[in-house]
Write a structure and sequence with these properties.
The complex is a heterodimer of chains A (242) and B (391). Chain A contains one helix and 21 strands. Chain A is mainly beta. Chain A has a five-stranded mixed beta sheet with strand order 1-18-17-16-15, with no helix packed on it. A four-stranded antiparallel beta sheet of chain A has the order 2-21-20-19, with no helix packed on it. Chain A has a four-stranded antiparallel beta sheet with strand order 3-4-5-6, with no helix packed on it. Chain A starts with a helix and ends in a 6-residue tail after the last strand. Chain B is mainly beta. Chain B has one domain: Porin (Beta Barrel), CATH 2.40.160. Chain B is 7% helix and 49% strand. Chain B has a 16-stranded antiparallel beta barrel. The longest helix of chain B is centred in the first third of the chain and has 12 residues. Chain B is globular and about 60 Å long. The chains are: A mainly beta (242), B mainly beta (391).
Chain lengths: 242, 391
């Protein structure tokens, strides 16, 4: 029977693919459904003990620890995919227009915006943004094909770039935390911990969630991951904190 | 050795590339893309058949696409295929799956509570036909959804609404009803439109119109869809549809009333994915002597014929090997007044080359059974081509 051949071939192929070494799986401790449509990134603000979340619809939100919206700021015509905050400012990154918007953290008033050209598909632009205290440079990452990490100086001028395409299919968020670079991969559903200067992968964990897009660490080091399609934020214990 | 040389020649001579570039002024973006693809096709003819003209290389796609966005309010999509245009300028019959102009529409999002799409493009009716074939291991869609039984593209207006965190989508539209031939400008002499509606719901999250679970989704996802379309194109006496409007099956538009109902289900989990889709058409030709009645009397037919079929497809994405393995089974009954139906089995494999998005695609066609009003000169067909993507 011709069908038996196909079934046998399919089972053989499947069995051969299940031998790859698997990363440890992180299990969420809880999740919250958020009212923010398509939450594409999340970051923690040490100054106000709140979170900032950006949406594909071009809105910057500030939320409490349970992701309840406290206030918001819309930016017409944008597709925000990354967010980062420091003591004085919040930065929201528009993937399509390759622009970083800088807001005053107190008033959420737009201070300035920086255009950083990058070729490639509209939805393959900048996806992650954070500050590397080890090198004193900003890090701006593209999503995929290729995954590029651009190092930026304080004027947002590119000083260096590194191709990270080999470590994951895509990168959807990046955080420098506790002296390491932490990367989130949406397509691979993976959390990775890297050396912050050499970008070598130290450890990785698999995540049992659909479409992980945003990564944040709260004041205790717990991990929050926002999921675009599920419109949820998942909470995980930090596997590196005993 | 000869086989290896032939394979190498195929891979070199026909290839596909897909590259995209973005131009932005800070508020608006324009994305330019291109797509080239081709294959070698071999048919195993039935005994006594001599026409081997389908054993050939074919340039399937030579596409240029432009997608634009102006602020939050407008999006435009323009996609054309020069390979199809060249072929259609030589051939008299347009391949409905490769009509030349693929998309030319604008979507207005300024209403906020719903979007409005105006222009020419894919119809929101069949899930299978809404999936870009470039993302599939297949070279050709199932017969019922490739545009020869009912149209899959048309000119018109569609109202689009999504809700429940984008898990539910609703589409309602009005179109010329002549499919790709609507681009000629005029409607048929009836002057009537076709109306199409679709609603789908997915769980536990938004489910994009994809075929392959490349991410190996860790939580099972499922989507249900229902759709319907209606046209009443009773031609005035002495008039006729434009040439080729009815397609080779004579069903694409009919001289009379027609209802089509469709139902689809899709799931994905851990690399496995599957799609099932079923359609039924009720055609009520106004003329009792219409060829669709197959010479039966009005008393025998009750004034209508039924057509329809289904597709069942299973896929697995071998992530470590970047390989898609698919198998599809389809049945098509063109006319319930004719005994029997057509059955086809078609597996396919797509191998993605690392880092470039390139893909080698192989599709095998096997005709298990034929309907007497739609016989073929072949039993098996093999189609192999190569893709090279730059993103």
């Amino acid at each position: 029977m011709i069908y038996n051949k196909y079934i046998f071939l399919g089972l053989t192929l499947f069995s051969l693919t299940t031998n790859a070494q698997k990363a440890n799986k992180l299990k969420p401790t809880k999740f919250v459904a958020v009212t923010i449509p398509e939450p594409s990134d999340i970051c923690y603000s040490n100054k106000s003990n709140t979170f900032f979340i950006v949406s594909d619809t071009g809105v910057l939100y500030e939320t409490d620890k349970d992701c309840k919206v406290l206030r918001k700021q819309a930016q017409d015509g944008t597709d925000f995919e990354a967010v980062y905050s420091d003591e004085n400012f919040v930065y929201a990154v528009d993937e399509s227009n390759r622009t970083i918007y800088k807001y005053d953290i107190t008033s959420l008033k737009l201070i300035k915006y920086y255009s950083i050209p990058y070729d490639g598909a509209r939805n393959k632009g900048y996806e992650s943004f954070d500050f590397n205290k080890t090198t004193n440079k900003y890090a701006l990452l593209t999503e995929s094909n290729p995954v590029l990490l651009f190092e930026l100086d304080s004027d947002f001028k590119i000083t260096n770039q590194t191709d990270l395409s080999k470590i994951a299919s895509d990168i959807s968020s990046a955080r420098f935390y506790d002296g390491f670079l932490w990367l989130l991969s949406d397509e691979d559903m993976m959390l990775l911990k890297l050396n912050p200067t050499t970008y070598e992968v130290i450890t990785k964990w698999s995540l049992p969630v659909i479409n992980p897009e945003g990564l944040a660490f709260d004041k205790d080091g717990n991990i929050l991951i926002s999921c675009d399609d599920m419109q949820r934020v998942y909470y995980f214990k930090n596997p590196e904190k005993k | 050795m000869k086989k290896n040389i032939l394979l190498l020649l195929i891979l070199i001579s026909v290839n596909s590339s897909f590259s995209q570039f973005v131009i932005s002024n800070g508020k608006s973006t324009l994305e330019i893309s291109s797509n080239f693809s081709g294959f070698y096709n071999y048919r195993s003819l039935k005994s006594g058949e001599v026409d081997a003209s389908k054993n050939r290389f074919k340039l399937r796609d030579a596409q240029l696409g432009i997608n634009g966005r102006i602020g939050n309010d407008f999006e435009l999509s323009l996609k054309m295929d020069f390979a199809d245009m060249a072929a259609n300028s030589i051939n008299t019959v347009i391949d409905p799956e490769n009509p030349g102009l693929l998309n030319a529409n604008v979507t207005y999002k300024g209403l906020k509570f719903m979007d409005v799409e105006m222009g020419y493009g894919k119809l929101y009716y069949s899930r299978n036909s809404m999936i870009p074939i470039e993302n599939s291991a297949y070279w050709q869609s199932a017969e019922i959804t490739r545009g020869s039984v009912f149209s899959v593209r048309d000119v018109g207006v569609t109202f689009i609404k999504n809700f429940w965190k984008q898990r539910a989508n609703a589409y309602l539209g009005a179109y010329s009803g002549l499919g790709e031939l609507s681009l000629a400008g005029d409607n048929d002499p009836s002057g009537k439109l076709e109306y199409i509606g679709r609603m789908d719901v997915s769980y536990p999250s938004r489910y994009r119109y994809t075929e392959i679970d490349e991410r190996h989704t860790p939580i099972p996802m499922i989507q249900f869809g229902i759709a319907g379309r209606y046209a009443n194109k009773k031609l005035p006496v002495g008039t006729a549809f434009p040439t080729n409007a009815t397609s080779s099956y004579g069903l694409k538009v009919i001289d009379g009333e027609r209802y089509i109902y469709g139902l689809d289900v899709a799931f994905q989990y851990m690399g496995f994915s599957g799609q099932f889709e079923i359609h039924q058409m009720k055609s009520k030709p106004q003329n009792p002597n219409d060829a669709l009645f197959q010479n039966y009397t009005l008393n025998q037919t009750n004034g209508y014929i039924l057509s329809g079929g289904y597709i069942a497809q299973l896929n697995y994405y071998i992530k470590d090997w970047r390989t898609i393995v698919s198998a599809r089974y389809e049945e098509l009954d063109l006319n319930d007044l004719v005994v029997g139906n057509a059955r086809k089995f078609s597996p396919a494999i797509g191998y993605k080359l690392k880092g470039s998005g390139a893909m080698v695609k192989f599709q095998y066609f096997n005709i298990l059974r034929e309907e007497s009003i739609d016989t073929q000169s072949w039993k098996e067909q093999f189609r192999l081509g190569f893709q090279f993507q730059l993103k």
